[in-house]
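[Solved] Which block belongs to which protein?

Original post:
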Amino acid sequence: MSENYWEMRKQIAEIGKVMYNRLLTDAAGGNISVRIGDVILMTPRFAGSKWHWDLKPENVLVLNLNSERIEGEGEVSREVRVHADLLNNFYPDATAVVHGHARNSLVFCSVQKPIPSMLYSTDKFGKEIGFVPDAPAHTQDLANHMVAAMAPQIERVKKQAAVMLAPRHGVFVLAKDLEAGYDAIDRVEMGAYCALMSKLA
């Protein structure tokens, strides 16, 4: 099992570290998942607070489609409901979910205002990045809201990704693949920075 998915687990660990270094997520949370066939590869609980996002491939969990651990070191993240529901509902058009606590985007999450598209590079995600209804982190309600919000955006996912904000929580990206998901959260975070700094220009 581990040999079959080792390279993707390595890539997930590497992107998690890059996200942490670029302030696209923090010690409090964030998760990355990729579906390959009948398994989901996902970062573990406490990836930030325990491992400081310095994960090894063996820390990335191999889960079945019921979110049960098959292999890997660490606990299953409490946010697995969102990841599994998105990947199980939209696979194979979507194969990756990237969730981050991106620093500038969190400002918009905290005041519950959408992030306007300020750049050509973010226009592909819509005129603004909006919100799902408020629901506590880690709940089935949040998962249900994310599935409902992503469904009308499936054409964006097929091209690259769709992005939604969770009030007082963070950014969720549903993407065609892992690289597209990372690219999307990075673009949206830069857009959030430009939106904030534009008030000073």
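(Second protein starts here: sequence line, then its structure tokens.)
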Amino acid sequence: MTSGSESPEGPKKLVVGFCCNECAYAAADLAGSTHRTHPPNVLVVRVPCSGAVDPSWLLYALANGADAAFVAGCRKGECHYVDGNLKAESRVSFLKSLLDAVGVEPERVEMFFMAASEPHRFVEAAREMAARVEALPPLHRRESVPVGPKREALIRALQSIAVEVRDVPLPAIPGFEVPVFDLDRCIGCGACIEACPEGAIHSEDRGDFRVFLLSALKCTGCGDCVDACRENEVEALSLGGVRVPQLLSEWSEVARLELTRCSVCGRPFATDRELERADSPPICPECKAKASAKAISFGRVRL
């Protein structure tokens, strides 16, 4: 692709634009061949479809030197891959919310739509983003981010540029959905833990409570935990948007259920709902085993 350039006195902050091959990149190429100029600090990256752009790509660019990043795809209703541009739009919206939640200006990322025959729209988009970054303060980075798995790269990039972290839920998009617990329904059975293929959920009994922990880094949003909960006739789980602190923590608490104490030894061991479901008295398995062994030793029949 060829393109005109502006004077050396123009904007210096780097902008990265991910342009779909079918329309946006073709528009950028046509802009160059028809001698339309755009700021030289706008770096164009060609992708097969805007729907292929992952949020981690834009964050990776911001963490490694870019001051802004945008995605450009086909016009709505005209995507060559059906709805790739709409997927890209939802991801950019997700990323805007994510940046805002960590104290970074959400206008550093944007989504644009254009046809291959609209070179002026690409030039307008490039100039708009270049103008935006000039009006924004410098983006401070703690460290550069190495190439890695998409989820890991996103988290590392976010940690690098975060100013402050607010505990807010993010829009739910595929790949960034996590299980959300309904504490009024959850019985603490652990069916979700057994069903998770990534080991992204585990529980710990801490004193009088059973605490469920989630690793957003490991979670893929597959929904197996939700299906297991439903099959167990509990339906206490659903998929929802990940919360910002969950993304930045190796493990985060997502549920805390009070435990019932054993009527024999006094040790907390199960939730009330577990015992009700099993129609069992509040006696822990160890005390039940001891009582059974004692009954057998005296020749009694265990009920």
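Accepted answer:
You had them paired correctly. Confirming on the second one: The two ends are 82 Å apart (CA to CA).
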